[in-house]
Amino acid sequence: xxxxxxxxxxxxxxxxxxxxxxxxxxxxxxxxxxxxxxxxxxxxxxxxxxxxxxxxxxxxxxxxxxxxxxxxxxxxxxxxxxxxxxxxxxxxxxxxxxxxxxxxxxxxxxxxxxxxxxxxxxxxxxxxxxxxxxxxxxxxxxxxxxxxxxxxxxxxxxxxxxxxxxxxxxxxxxxxxxxxxxxxxxxxxxxxxxxxxxxxxxxxxxxxxxxxxxxxxxxxxxxxxxxxxxxxxxxxxxxxxxxxxxxxxxxxxxxxxxxxxxxxxxxxxxxxxxxxxxxxxxxxxxxxxxxxxxxxxxxxxxxxxxxxxxxxxxxxxxxxxxxxxxxxxxxxxxxxxxxxxxxxxxxxxxxxxxxxxxxxxxxxxxxxxxxxxxxxxxxxxxxxxxxxxxxxxxxxxxxxxxxxxxxxxxxxxxxxxxxxxxxxxxxxxxxxxxxxxxxxxxxxxxxxxxxxxxxxxxxxxxxxxxxxxxxxxxxxxxxxxxxxxxxxxxxxxxxxxxxxxxxxxxxxxxxxxxxxxxxxxxxxxxxxxxxxxxxxxxxxxxxxxxxxxxxxxxxxxxxxxxxxxxxxxxxxxxxxxxxxxxxxxxxxxxxxxxxxxxxxxxxxxxxxxxxxxxxxxxxxxxxxxxxxxxxxxxxxxxxxxxxxxxxxxxxxxxxxxxxxxxxxxxxxxxxxxxxxxxxxxxxxxxxxxxxxxxxxxxxxxxxxxxxxxx
Length: 710
Hints:
Blueprint: H1 10-18, H2 22-26, H3 40-47, H4 49-56, H5 64-67, H6 76-87, E1 93-102, E2 105-115, E3 120-131, H7 133-137, H8 152-168, E4 173-182, E5 196-202, E6 209-215, E7 230-234, H9 236-243, H10 260-273, H11 301-311, H12 342-348, H13 376-387, E8 393-395, H14 397-400, E9 410-418, E10 434-445, E11 451-460, H15 469-480, E12 489-492, H16 496-508, H17 519-529, E13 531-532, E14 541-542, E15 548-549, H18 550-557, E16 558-560, H19 569-579, H20 581-586, E17 593-594, E18 599-600, H21 634-644, H22 653-663, H23 670-708
């Protein structure tokens, strides 16, 4: 085995499989912005992938830690030499993170089983995704007989490694195996995840930081239960099929499109050349990590690709200036598009920027009643007109008139949850929901119409080895029904809270995996405030007092140019505070929000109150909060903020989940756990206060609108 100066690794092969142009940007980390740079530690906390990989070793060895089966070095040459040394054994040997090379290719195999007598090499790739039996039976293909796009990257990962091993070891039988989490299997031991702590190490050979797992010393196979949550899948037939299948990437040259091996050799040459290969732009650019913002010092790969697409005639120049402040066409709101990607559609129409999009670019939806609120395309065109400088604010009075029907008091609730890959408790399935925190604000109206706001309730559980979900429902029920009756209207933002409660209903009710003496009352409460469809697996259900979705109300009734095309509360909150200056003024003053003040708080105790809108924080309420991991963990907090992202749920959901997962290791000092808990309470309090601000803002907009129509 030999190694070239710039080998094609499996991680870089996966980059090329997404987009060969990204090879150029990823090879220049000092030049190009990368949203995924240095966040693997917290990502491991969030998704548990490294823990699954460590756990899988016990399927092939009773004591992988004690036997030292893992090749630890990150240095190519050192790792290859150590792997060759281990494979020189005359007996069957199990090697984790085996380093193998052949000419332009280099791979680290999760688990390699070398049997020199049988002349076999079992190649095991471990992924933290969960799979059901139907998917395996259908060989990861959809109803059209095509490989599901969501599974293809994993399958190609195995196929790439199998090709390298086949070339490096002619005459051996290659046995590719994919290990996934079994969605139906139930963990049979408590604290399984505790044995595999996520840590951040410094590699002694390279000096690079890396996310790793510190396995509890003395851990052997007999301590881990039946491990049925891990499913081993022979994928020999899939590897064979993919090896002969053309790669489905736009504008590849003929020499790259004859199957897997020609593609591998072509990608290796592109990488060795050091030159940028550009094919086209697509909807995938929307999620590209190489897009820098206006204030970032590094180059922006996406913007360079955009200019290349214009130069090649793939996109029309249009009205864009080419700067990072100008929204690209893929930034257009993509909701209500059905099976068709709006981002791909506008690219096919050759639109480079949002301002260039035309109303005729979208198909007209038949049926429906646009008078119920803004139609999807109407909302999109409001964004387009805003970018053209022809209107920044739009609200649909018919859609917002539903506010008049709300029963008071108004309850704003927000949940924080985790769905760990490796279950925290016996009786749980992989990625099953744990609910560990909620916040509850109340808006009450007296006889004179005066509205009073208070942070009424909160609950959190960060203690390790403590199952929180049943107590979570119990405390939530008590918060909303202190005397056994639910009065008023309960609000959520998007689908998360409804989905969580329906999942917990299944856990407490139909399956009954956790005994609760008040199970009947808890299930009745969940049924009252939720809805479900046949697709949820629990039948059609409409709760008598089901939660009102403010996200849906915003979609139909309110558009602000300041939110761009987003309806996430992270973007809508500053927009509504700009459009409703009366609300903004209230939360810009000291002495208003805090314990014992005009707006009652459970966590902010200063006598002067907490000022949410401050110029030194850019008017962003979330920036007024202390860091989750404490002031001394600047790098960790910076990475955590990046993980929060701009999703369609409330701002800090991903961040809270990651921080909670961090608290679930026994080795954490109680002072650290208490500090994280205090920070999470404040963030969750702001999540429900943000909903209050939103409702107040809509009320102000309607009031101003009514006056302007007099």
